[in-house]
Amino acid sequence: MEEAKNKTILIVDDDKFLLNMYRMKFAESGFVVETATSGQETLQILRTGTSPQILMLDMVMPGMDGIELLETIRKEKLASSAHVVILSNQSQASDMDKAKEFGIDGYIVKATSIPSEVVQEVIKVIKVKN
C-alpha cells in the first residue's frame, strides 16, 4: 500500500500478544514498525530523537496510561509531526473526549475492529492528514 510505504509506526500496548499481531499486520502493509510495551519505554524511544509518522497508543496500561503518555509527549514536543491514533477497549464517550483534547487523529475501539481494519483506519488517517 502506497500510503504505508516506509512510514514508521510506533505501536504502544502492554499486551505483547496484540503488539506482535499488530506488528505483523502493519509490516505486511509496508509500514516500518517499532513497538513499546509501556509509557516509559515509549518516552525513552522518543527522547532519543526517533520520530515516527504514526503513534498508536493503548489507553489502559500499567504505570502510565495512554492519556498521561500523550500529555507528556505533547509537553515535551516529542514526535510533534506524528499522527496519533488511540487503539483502546475504552469506548466511553468521556474517554474519547479526553483523548481528543490532546489533538488525536483517530480513535479505534479494539473490540470492534479486526487487525486488518485497524491498519485500514490508520491508512485513512494518513490520507486525510496529508
UniProtKB/TrEMBL annotation:
Keyword list, A-Z: Phosphoprotein, Two-component regulatory system
Domain Response regulatory: 8-125
InterPro entries: Bact_response_regulator (IPR050595), CheY-like_superfamily (IPR011006), Sig_transdc_resp-reg_receiver (IPR001789)
Gene Ontology biological process: phosphorelay signal transduction system
Keyword Cell division on entry: no
Claim: Phosphoprotein is one of the keywords in the record: yes
SMART domains: REC
Residue list for modification 4-aspartylphosphate: 58
UniProt cross-references to PROSITE patterns, sorted A to Z: RESPONSE_REGULATORY
Domain of life (superkingdom): Bacteria
Protein name as it appears in the record: Response regulatory domain-containing protein
Species for this entry: Candidatus Taylorbacteria bacterium RIFCSPLOWO2_01_FULL_45_15b
